[in-house]
Amino acid sequence: MPVLTTDAESETGIPKSLSNEPPSETMEEIEHTCPQPRLTLTAPAPFADETSCQCQAPHEKLTIAQARLGTPVDRPVRVYADGIFDLFHSGHARALMQAKTLFPNSYLLVGVCSDDLTHKFKGFTVMNEAERYEALRHCRYVDEVIRDAPWTLTPEFLEKHKIDFVAHDDIPYSSAGSDDVYKHIKEAGMFVPTQRTEGISTSDIITRIVRDYDVYARRNLQRGYTAKELNVSFINEKKYRFQNQVDKMKEKVKNVEERSKEFVNRVEEKSHDLIQKWEEKSREFIGNFLELFGPDGAWKQMFQERSSRMLQALSPKQSPTFFVLSLRRVLGQSHKKSIHT
Question: Is residue 107 within 8 Å of residue 76, measured between CB atoms?
Answer without folding.
Answer: yes
